[in-house]
UniProtKB/TrEMBL annotation:
InterPro entries: NACHT_NTPase, NPHP3-like_N, P-loop_NTPase
Pfam families reported in the protein's UniProt record: NPHP3_N (PF24883)
SUPFAM superfamilies in the record: P-loop containing nucleoside triphosphate hydrolases
UniProt domain NACHT: residue ranges: 49-199
UniProtKB keywords: Repeat
Protein name per UniProt: NACHT domain-containing protein
Amino acid sequence: IDILSKKVVHGAFQDSNERFDAPKCHPKTRIVILKKILDWAEAMDKSSRIMWMYGPAGSGKSAIAQTTAETFDGRRLAATFFFSRKSADRSSAKHLLTTIAYQMAISIPGMRSLVEQVVENDHSVFSRSLETQFRRLVINPFMEAMSRRQETMNSHLIIIDGLDECRDALVQGAIIKLFASFFTQYETLPLTLLIASRPERQIRDVFNIEDVNRISLRLVLDDTYNPDSDIKEYLQSKFSEIKQIHPLKQHIDPKWPSENIISQLVRKSSGQFIYASTAIKFISSLKYRPSERLDIILGNKQAGDETPFAHLDSLYMYTLA
């Protein structure tokens, strides 16, 4: 396991220190979407073994994936991998399967010794093809561990978030095809996969392949799930929190902000949670009066050297590149 650990991207775990304060769904938001994922993952009928959750940048995919991981952690979460273009290790799929195998060896009873045996017998397994690594480090040990258990097994869940942030577009498609191939080959395998990404062409094209589409379920983050209502709930909760704990709370009007202002922010968000969360981070800065920071957001006050949406700008510059 120590040898395997050296081939693992620990920062890709849902609870890694590298991802400290990772985005997750605010309480009372995304309830319908989270339930849809939960119902799918817990369903006994697994005709759809892969769920593809997709939406534009800033629509809250990673927050939903994180919340789902935390919901399943400790019971049926097999493994996670959170890709990120900001990290050299997490923007590559080089150690994707070893990272998944390591987590499954730790989280699934009886699987660790089987994975260790594979590594002990052949240290070169890490340099083999994706298909060989997946079969030898994940599928075969998982199936053997499951066969040794007497009780009926519920499905375990693997979550891959931000697949579009893997820097090799061809590998993105290869990963989807790899899982789909094994799921088709082993129809009773108690394993499911949640993939979250932007609807990039290379990913969309693979999901449109008949054999992949047949075992996949799509969850698009659009207006169907009424994001404006969730964003309003989030803003109201955060503004209430600011009024309770901000160091300059004595300077805040109890009625601040008005319903009209919250509605303006909801409209400006255009269904994208990242706009609302970026605005709140700027407004809640401990060094300034929240009301003045809100005026900057609304354009009622000159920003000066302030850059309230620098993070948002960089995100969309990347997606347009």
